[in-house]
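HUMAN: Quick job: go over this next protein and say how the chain folds.
***
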Amino acid sequence: MIFNHNKSWIFFLLLICSLIGQNFKYSEIQTIPDLSFVKKVYTGLDILEQMDFSQLKGKTISILCNQASVNRNGKHLLTLLREVEDVHVLAIFLPQYGLFASEDPKLKMMGDKSVDPIFGARIVDLFKRVMYPPEWSIRDADLILIDIQDTGVRYTTYMTTVSKVMEKASEFDTPVLLLDRPNPLRGDVMDGPVIRTAYQSLEGYHLVPIRHGLTIGEYALIVNEMGWLKDLARANLKIIPMSNWQRTMWMDDTGIPFISILPEVNNVESLLAYMGMNLFKGTNINVGHGTESPFFRVGAPWISGSLLWKKVNKLNLPGVYFHQIRYVPESIYGEERGPYYAGQNCSGLLMEITNRNTFDPLATSTALMILTYQLYEKNFEWLAGGYVDKLFGYDLLRIFAAQGKPVDYLPPLWLHDILRFSEFRTRFLLYE
């Protein structure tokens, strides 16, 4: 069930500078020039660039960024810093999926270490090899710079990596400067249950709904102020906010390039589909991996697309239409496992989002999952270890499926979570 949060919960003052009066105990919000007369959205990176990178000059810095760390003109942070004098880059931290979404040919090897050829900075993978930055990369830095585009979806790991960088920085009291970016799925819509503590993981590191409606800056602010870092640590955190971003904006409303930060997710619609359909990672269903439309399909050799189509059409799910299809998933080069049923004839449904504003990704995906379970209980499998529970937030989804109740009874069960989270997050919102 989508909760659309359209009310203005805080006063957003744009007199001479924005965010005057936003006082927090452990974190600082940078005052920025009033750019409201320009009518364009400026990210934290754009603001830092407008300020001539003055906060970085004369400093040794370590940087956490990804391929979407670009300014309004599509120029990457690392490219911009090449033109800034008196900034020494010590280390570049890579989140999941690396930098530029693949092994970057611009990086070179020195022994068994990757090194950026421009800055001579060590490249540190914070997902495949280690989860925390090495001590030297924090201890010997004057500042940690974070500029990373998040998805707006809880079960991606970018905020987990940001949190671990902040945790390490807190050990040495090394300042952290975070450049804010839009939530690509709007900031006024929340959906899904808040994860229970027993089910926290790298894909559910903090107690937020699946669709949280926060910017990366607001999320980091909550984490720091609430003591959500390990051992209640607090980072010396400063956030450079955006200018002119509004909570009702989708990413493609901002004029900022949409750059893929997840495999097979290339636009707002595919990110919306991913938000719901990624729950199927906890099952033995193919959701379009190995085809030209990942996250838009539900299929298996043992599914009858016509039967599933009849069942799901009776639900009248908003903003979406389903087509019956048959397809054969292809093997994906470089993947150790999957996709499910590669080389086999699958029957199922193709999902078409007809209205992104009314489409409910979680109500849709959970309906498809529960219907499939109920129709094909002998063939349907939950992956071992309760993986779907970690994605969903707890074991309600599996229990509900087993109970055989109507699928539209499920979304109202997490509405209480959304209402409480909406009230909780109010004091941390930086934008109207």
Q: What stands out?
A: The longest helix spans residues 158-172. Residues 132 and 164 are 6 Å apart (CA to CA). The radius of gyration is 22 Å.
